[in-house]
Amino acid sequence: MRCPYCGSDDTQVKDSRPSEDNTSIRRRRVCSVCGGRFTTFERIQLRELTVLKKSGRRVPFDRDKLMRSVQVALRKRPVDPDRIERMVNGVVRQLESSGESEITAEQIGVLVMEGLKGLDDVAYVRFASVYRNFREAKDFSAVLHELSTQDGVEDEPR
């Protein structure tokens, strides 16, 4: 593993342990050249996934990009980081176990929206606004109505 501080390839593992949800290995490392300490995570990857974009382009699946987009939707929301990690791991597991090596951006978006709906309604609406490309206020209203009817709470007449 290359040191993020000096770029040396001479690093040593000082401590390894499973992550809290047992989906990865957390390794504490130290660089023998500069003495820098850092942590790496090792995850199981069942298969190489390719994402088919709406434009027709094909790009390698990037778990970190998925995590960043979920974190943007959840910014300043009171959601435990472990729950976020578990949700993203669940989405990745579903994609990898689908049996397909090529997945559409739409499939990813649907799974993320399902996951966010269970975590935080505000994050769900934020993500939906980008994923569904909202253009007007009525688009938000439709999603909010959808959320309220799924929760069994109808909007009261005004």
Automatic annotation (TrEMBL):
InterPro entries: ATP-cone_dom, NrdR-like_N, RNR_NrdR-like. HAMAP family: NrdR (MF_00440). This is Transcriptional repressor NrdR. A zinc finger (unnamed) spans 3-34. Keywords: ATP-binding, DNA-binding, Metal-binding, Nucleotide-binding, Repressor, Transcription, Transcription regulation, Zinc, Zinc-finger. Residues 11-22 have a biased composition (Basic and acidic residues). Belongs to the NrdR family. Binds 1 zinc ion. Negatively regulates transcription of bacterial ribonucleotide reductase nrd genes and operons by binding to NrdR-boxes. It comes from Kaistia dalseonensis. Its cofactor is Zn(2+). Residues 49-139 form the ATP-cone domain. It comes from the Bacteria. Residues 1-22 are annotated as: Disordered.
